[in-house]
Amino acid sequence: MDMAKVNLQDDEYIILKESNITPALPMALATDEVIFTNKNIIYISKGFLGDTKKVDYFLLDDIKIIDGNVQIFEVEKYNLKYLEIDFKNRNLMFSFDSGYHRKKWIEEITNFIKSKNDNKVVTKCVSCGAQISGIRGQYTKCQYCKSEQIL
């Protein structure tokens, strides 16, 4: 995998990665790569010869959750089964070589999103009283007074 083309944040780490991914296009080849991190799903579009054409970052925080259900599905299109992830302003659809990988990705992403949301806290800043939110037990910075505090 050509990790030089992927820019991870300092506190970002890889959870899963796969190559030989097929994009949701008719007659597409399995040349792409996908990476699931603690912050993004990174989709790397590759050419026929393996050269990187485009790198797209999909924020995990933008995945839709409807009635407590993370919007990630197995769908059929072009006679293949795909993984579809619905984000707030767009969606991502791709296929793996095997159904095992598709099911594993659905399970891992769903569990990660649910556990992340279970730990979210909304409270008031101890310095200025503004509403702040973040993950329980972690530092957050108030966007108004810039004070840091543990939630």
Briefly characterize the structure:
This protein is mainly beta and 151 residues long. Helix content is 13%, strand content 46%.
Query: Uncertain spans, ≥5 residues at pLDDT below 50?
Result: none
First and last CA, distance: 37 Å
State the order of secondary-structure elements, H for helix, E for strand. Answer: EEEEEEEEEHEEEE
Arithmetic mean of pLDDT: 88
Proportion of residues in helical segments = 10-25%
Oligomer: single chain
What is the structural class? mainly beta
Largest sheet: 7 strands, antiparallel
Summarize the SSE layout with pairings.
Layout: E1 14-23, E2 32-37, E3 40-46, E4 52-59, E5 65-66, E6 69-70, E7 72-77, E8 80-86, E9 91-95, H1 99-118, E10 120-124, E11 131-135, E12 139-141, E13 148-150
Antiparallel strand pairs: 1-2, 1-9, 2-3, 3-4, 5-6, 7-8, 8-9, 10-11, 12-13
Could you please describe the fold and organization of this structure?
- The structure is a single chain.
- It contains one helix and 13 strands; from the N terminus they run βββββββββαββββ.
- The protein has 151 residues and is mainly beta.
- The strands form four sheets. Strands 4-3-2-1-9-8-7 form a seven-stranded antiparallel β-sheet, with helices on one face. It has a two-stranded antiparallel ribbon with strand order 5-6. A two-stranded antiparallel sheet has the order 10-11.
- Strand 8 and strand 9 form a beta hairpin.
